[in-house]
Amino acid sequence: GRYIVKLLQAKGHIVYGLGRHEHQDLIDQGVKWFKADIRNYEQVLNATKDVDAIIHCASKIAMWGEWQEFLAINVEGTKNLLKAAKQNKVKKFVYTSTPSVVFGRESIEGGNETLPYPENSVSLYGRSKAIAENEVLTTDQNKLLTCALRPHLIFGPGDDHLVPRLVDAAQSNRLKIIGDGTNQVDVIAVENAALAHVQALEALSTESQVKGQAYFVAQETPVKLWDFTNELLRIHKTKPVTKKISFKLAYAIGLIFEMMAKFFDYKKDKLPMTRFVAMQLSKSHWYKHDKAKEHFGYHPKLSTQDALKNYEESLRS
């Protein structure tokens, strides 16, 4: 979100922000802030008056939790934004989705946007995002122009989500290689993810191919997940992960924890293991980005190597 704000302001746009908490750094750089919850329609309606476009990056991201909370935030919150956008005659709506909407139980290697939503996803997050994405893409394009982007494993300066969790798990000896460690995945530098959002926003029009479409966006080529993870750990001066467990064992452990969570009303977002995490960390999941390149000219501005260098320099400074 912060990187998108910078790009939009650099292009001369006036930017409004909406969130449950005020972010003084954004306010200081000229963002008009609305302290609001996307679950509250009246607050959303008020915050989206007199705007031309909405970029919706907010969601509950967790590997486990209460389904009703995923539903309320990711699905109903998105519906509120779509409804308010139409009510306030907003022209464009760009939704930050995720490749998890199409990830089922098997590896995906070079998949594209024709992949269907899986019928029985074990990820509450992925399931809720798929429902929300479908709401966005099936919106009447005569009333509101929409599209969805699916960035995968965003990393870079300012990250307080993905990499810090990996580092914490590694430092606590809770992180192990699942499977043989050769699985490949897509990743994307935060600078490239923000650029893709702005490019899609600018290309979105009544005449363009972008309206009503979903797009995978990532770095030019996938990475070996565990090599990439260990490089991030190196940057954080943390020992590399070398211990391995089989996928079957990790999956079984995840299933046991999920069953225990249900029986004992375990409501925390963090379980030591889930079936989805076992699959994400052991399977390959990378995608083609030809559609984004063709429809709105997406091309990674930063290579993976340069992005990692930027990230390391930001931490050192």
The overall pLDDT average reads: 94
What's the number of extended β-strand segments? 14
> Biggest sheet, open or closed, and with what strands and sense?
4 strands, parallel
What share of the residues does DSSP label as strand, in percent? 15-25%
- Helix and strand run: HEHEHEHEEHEEHEEEHEEHEHHEHH
Low-confidence region ranges: none
Number of contiguous helices: 12
Sheet with the most strands: spatial strand order: 3-4-6-11
Tell me the span between the first and last alpha carbons. Answer: 22 Å
CA radius of gyration: 19 Å
Shape: globular
Quaternary arrangement of the chains shown?
Answer: single chain
Helix content: 40-55%
Class based on secondary structure composition and strand pairing: alpha/beta
